[in-house]
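Supplementary Note 3. Input sequence used for the single-chain structure prediction.
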Amino acid sequence: MSKEKRIVFVTSSKNKCEEAQAILSNWIIEQSEVNLPEIQSLESAEVVRTKIEAGKLVVDGPFFVEDTSLHLSCLKGRLPGPMVRLFLLAIGREGISELCYRMGGNFGAEVRATIGYYDGKDLTVIFQGAIKGKITRPRGESNFGWDSIFVPEGSEETFAEMGQVEKNKISHRKVVLDKFKNFLDNELKG
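The predicted structure, written as discrete structure tokens, is reproduced below.
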């Protein structure tokens, strides 16, 4: 009889957890809603490392955390970065879209997902995944903040318009979770 493969995902987002479970289908994802501090930094890896260090103090055993960032070409590819949630709170999806229009119509964007894994002992590993696309006026409904304004390269639809199943095939989170899954399946056998 094979041992069940379980892993804890520390996130307050039910949607992120469901997305991770759909992509890491051969693993059982257990959501921990421990509220970890999130530093403000332009570097997702730094945000994730800080979450891991805080998580070590309150989560027993192996776990992973994730950070998602949006990088606008009109803002030199740096902002809003990991601070996208603050931008959404301050100016909303419409404001982010309008920003691109006001900055000379440069709609290029890249979304990145960064996962940090801690093995419960001494190993911390960071994984990153990204996809390019463009910003548009809000289209479609979604539970994720900026899905209605991001159109991935090769698509005419925003993430919100394409729906979860289609999004899970191509998203930044899919890219990073595939790398993470490969690590889990190959490095943590048994």
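The mean pLDDT is 92. The chain is about 35% helix and 25% strand.
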